[in-house]
Design goal:
With 321 residues, the protein is an all-alpha fold. The chain contains 13 helices and no strands. Mean pLDDT is 87; it is low at 1-18.
Length: 321
Amino acid sequence: MRTGPVFVDFVHGSIVGCNLMSQQLALSLPQRWFLSLRPYSFPASFVPIALTAVVSAAIDTPRSWWAFSAYAVSATLLHAGANVLNDYYDHLHGVDGPPAADRSHVIARGLVSARFMLITGHAYFLIAISLGLMLALLRGPGFLLGGVAAVAAAFFYTGRSFSLKYCGLGDIVVFITMGLLHPAMGVFATTGSVPPAALVLAIPLALPAVAILHGNNLRDRDTDRAAGVRTIANLLPLTAARALFAALTISPYLLVLLLVAGGYFEPVVGAVFLSLPFAVFLVGRVFVASDLTTLPVECAALYLGFSLLYLYGILAFGAPV
């Protein structure tokens, strides 16, 4: 009778269960709520909000800073709702890996219940939509149309019966909505118009935002595929998926270089190159490392560093709008 493996599995399961219980006891309710928001990803909302403020301040037109504030809260809550419902539906569909694989999987770790995530996720959406409708009354049907697109993309990013993420569209959705639509809607809410230059300024920030998601999907490539989830990271051959990550991570620097060389930016925007060594490190790690557990958090850190340097460079001489 072979009892060894059974005993080992029993001990391992007991240890994991004890670790999960100790995590629950060690964290307060506010801490668990905060972790449920997947806070490491919020630079992808805060940076477009900051870009909105920079661009709006440079436009020679009346500005509504209360509308900017409402937009900032609405956009952040929309992101929070998408994060929370993504965690809920990933758990429901059996997509999440072991609790130790990703500290953002709070349901799998036993930190909060699935019901808590379902209720709070929808609550964030309802508050965000309410603020958006208020802004639509101020800015008109054009803003309402953009808001409907933003809410639909966030809500159906992961859903019960249909998920943009599961159809390999996640990267494209993030580029269009978080990268371009997000700051455009913010400038529209604040000033009543969207100069084309605002979208040009947004592109170097949109690409590394997509890199956060693509890095997450690279890490989860095998588990997503096993669960029937199609992402660009597992639809492409592994080498091609890694090359796409490299392109998303390095191309913002090349784009800034071209814009500076073309006279669109002042040379001080080249301060972003201070973050290039970390970008190169992450690209190299993706090609050689087998454990990418912390890659999404590291991508978010790079995105934040690049963005702060980028915004500093723009602020130093004013946004070219």
